[in-house]
């Protein structure tokens, strides 16, 4: 599949707009970090079952942005979210966020 092709082409990570078990398993088998999209509790739980602790929250602006990440962080405290799609450093003030997609700068959140 595409994950195998990406690995063969020298990809250093795989990102996907959604969570596909086959993509995650192929990336894990190849030893490549994978960042699938997950925004619903069911998708986040499926990601956890695959051993993931970080997911892409996409499109963040459609699914509630920082407020949604904050709400999801209560039941999913060990999950980290990378918001993408209509999010900037200034609009992602969540301690459960890493860096907005497309940004290499981590989000700093005061306690």
In short:
The protein is α/β, with parallel strands linked by helices and 111 residues long.
Helix-strand blueprint:
Blueprint: H1 2-8, E1 14-15, H2 21-30, E2 34-35, H3 41-49, E3 54-57, H4 65-73, E4 80-83
Parallel strand pairs: 1-2, 3-4
What does this structure look like?
This protein is an alpha/beta fold and 111 residues long. Helices cover 32% and strands 11% of the residues. It contains 4 helices and 4 strands. Strands 1-2 form a two-stranded parallel ribbon. A two-stranded parallel sheet has the order 3-4. Strand 3 (54-57), helix 4 and strand 4 (80-83) form a beta-alpha-beta unit. Helix 1 (2-8) packs parallel to helix 2 (21-30). The longest helix is centred in the first third of the chain and has 10 residues, at 21-30. The model is unreliable at 102-111 (pLDDT under 50).
Question: What key phrases describe this protein's structure?
Answer:
4 helices, alpha/beta, two-stranded parallel ribbon, globular, 111 residues, disordered C terminus
Q: List unreliable stretches of 5+ residues.
A: 102-111
Using the alpha-carbon principal axes, give the shape: globular
Series of secondary-structure elements, N-terminal to C-terminal: HEHEHEHE
Quickly give the structural class.
Answer: alpha/beta
Main sheet summary:
2 strands, parallel
Terminus-to-terminus distance: 43 Å
Q: Give the % helix.
A: 25-40%
Q: Count all strands and give the number.
A: 4
Q: Kindly state the mean pLDDT as a whole number?
A: 83
| Annotation field: number of helices | 4
Largest sheet: spatial strand order = 1-2
Percent strand equals 5-15%
Radius of gyration, taken over Cα atoms and rounded to an integer in Å: 14 Å
